[in-house]
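Structure catalogue
Derive tokens from sequence
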Amino acid sequence: MRIGFVQFRPVFGDVATNLSIIRRLVSSAEADLLVLPELATTGYSFSSREELARIAEPYDSSPSLDRLQRIARARSRALVVGFAESCDGDLFNSAALLRPDGTRELYRKIHLFGFENLFFTPGNIPFAVHEYRGVKLGVMICFDWFFPESMRVLALKGSQIVCHPVNFVLPWGPSAMIVRCLENRVFAVTANRYGTETQGEYTFTFIGSSRVISPRGEVIASAPAEGDSVVVVEIDPGEALNKNINKYNDLFASRRPEFYSDITER
């Protein structure tokens, strides 16, 4: 399978321009699966709930997702893209898996970061795995990486590739994903943005450095800290099915869940 990321700098609040940028960048790559950044259609630094509500779109009738799905169909590929979602008065930091056959899947960010807690509702959809061309895909968003349970749940549910739209500002994220892939033996596509955005007295500097990482913790594709970057690599998703660490240890078979209950009880 040919998988990759699309790194770019969204223009805050300008959905039409962002969709045009995405179309141009997506069309330049031959891939089966491309992952785009968190909130790729809107930008990140909302200053109020009202500002966010004006630009958020319903998942089922989103003009932005409909347009991106047409792009996916025309290029015969799946896209995973972050967007601002409105639903029954709630606002979610969400991501959609858009398949070229017109079907789509939704994930809502469970672990909100910083000021996101002021405007977004925490995700209420459990981590799930979805099939695409015979391969099992999981989705998480940005700060979910900080909680190892996120990727472990996706791995236990059978995910072979974790699609990870992000707006990384913390410097540890790209390197930490190496550990997440190694400890779960899965592929991950982390798609970041670059540039800066200002919200009141705060300036966010996004660190780029998008990556594709293998189940062995190898960085098999990467982007610089600045600049548009579309990178595609060919992988064997079957590698993520091999959980053997050595002849005596299987990653999942060697687990001792009876001793882990404190994790969920606290």
The two ends are 40 Å apart (CA to CA). The mean pLDDT is 97.
